[in-house]
Amino acid sequence: MAREVDLEAFAAAWTDGAFVLDVRQPGEYRDGHVPGALLAPLPSLGVTPPKLPAGRPVYVICASGNRSKAAADLLAVVGGGVNGGADIYSVAGGTRGWIRAGRPVATGTEPGSVRPV
């Protein structure tokens, strides 16, 4: 099973260039996401798992932490080392917590277009 990290630990990992997988729906992602996060909606994970970076931890995020926990557990089981056996984490508090903490947010469909909060 995947482990859960709090927003502080995630923010430190993100600052260091962590790989972030956003498992919300496209509209939610478009409205605001962690800059650099790759969109991979939860329903698609069992059908088409995303290509994850080999040997790097993966941080899975959603709106609040529920879908990310399910997705991280799914990736840990069905992925069977999809990223070279690196750790997969669910981000507790999700994007809502990220925004409440005043962290940077990107909008649109591309992972990198940043707007201040």
UniProtKB/TrEMBL annotation:
UniProt cross-references to SUPFAM superfamilies, sorted A to Z: Rhodanese/Cell cycle control phosphatase
CDD domains: RHOD
SMART domains, alphabetized: RHOD
Chain ranges of the Rhodanese domain: 16-107
A Pfam family per the record: Rhodanese
Highest taxon of source: Bacteria
Name recorded for this polypeptide: Rhodanese domain-containing protein
Organism of derivation: Streptomyces laurentii
